[in-house]
Amino acid sequence: MSTSAATAQHILNSLTEKQREVLDRLIQHKTSKEIARELGISPHTVDQRIQFSKKKLNVGSRREAAERYRELNRIYERPIYEESRIGDGLMFTKEGACPDEYVISNHRHGDENTSLERHLEDVTFDRDAKNVAQQRQYLSRFLLILMLSGSTLLVALGSIAIFVTLSEYFELLNK
């Protein structure tokens, strides 16, 4: 292990698991509010964890902390997540330096040109189920607003139709 890798390991080991959770999201360019929502903590707690991390990383700003943390992860390349096998021959493996993205690839019998791999090589999965739940919540809100707008439009058109019918009726009465 080279000196830079040993130093990276020492600095990364000095960070708590909770500080790493925050830094993992910080390198994804998320705000304190977004990080707090995902982790179920207050934005103040997020900012405190970033402050303590900045001291351990020996940097002065959030941006520098994110850059330094990303750099240390690249140097040390400590596996945060183990490979997990799904079914027969499918495996989730890390892609690049981002621990949150995984790609399905087919490792069965060393055949790298299978049709399954060609179809799935660009499929990535977000390991954070909270993001999926949040996206579903936004979609359900959008659909609710769309339904309410449609209902309002139908009521307005119905009212106009009733008004026109009554106007014609009163015209016939006045003749």
Describe the structure.
This protein has seven helices and four strands; from the N terminus they run αααααβββαβα. The longest helix is centred in the last third of the chain and has 46 residues, at 129-174. The protein folds into three domains: 3-76, Orthogonal Bundle (Arc Repressor Mutant, subunit A), CATH 1.10.10.10; 84-127, no CATH class; 128-175. It is 64% helix and 10% strand. The chain starts with a helix and ends with a helix. The radius of gyration is 28 Å and the shape is rod-shaped. 13% of the residues are buried. The protein is an alpha+beta fold.
Short description:
This protein is an alpha+beta fold.
Radius of gyration: 28 Å
Q: Beta-strand percentage?
A: 5-15%
Total individual domains? 3
Record field, number of beta strands: 4
Percentage of residues in helical conformation: 55-70%
Rounded mean pLDDT score: 75
**What is the multimeric organization of the chains shown?**
single chain
Shape assignment: rod-shaped
> Which stretches are low in confidence, meaning pLDDT under 50 for 5 or more residues running?
80-127
CATH architecture of the largest domain: Orthogonal Bundle
| Distance from first to last alpha carbon | 102 Å
Q: What would you call the structural class?
A: alpha+beta
CATH fold type of the largest domain: Arc Repressor Mutant, subunit A
CATH class of the largest domain: Mainly Alpha
Largest sheet data: 4 strands, antiparallel
Number of helices: 7
Order of adjacent strands in the largest pleated sheet? 1-2-3-4
**CATH superfamily caption of the largest domain:** Winged helix-like DNA-binding domain superfamily/Winged helix DNA-binding domain
Compressed to H and E, one letter per element, the order equals: HHHHHEEEHEH
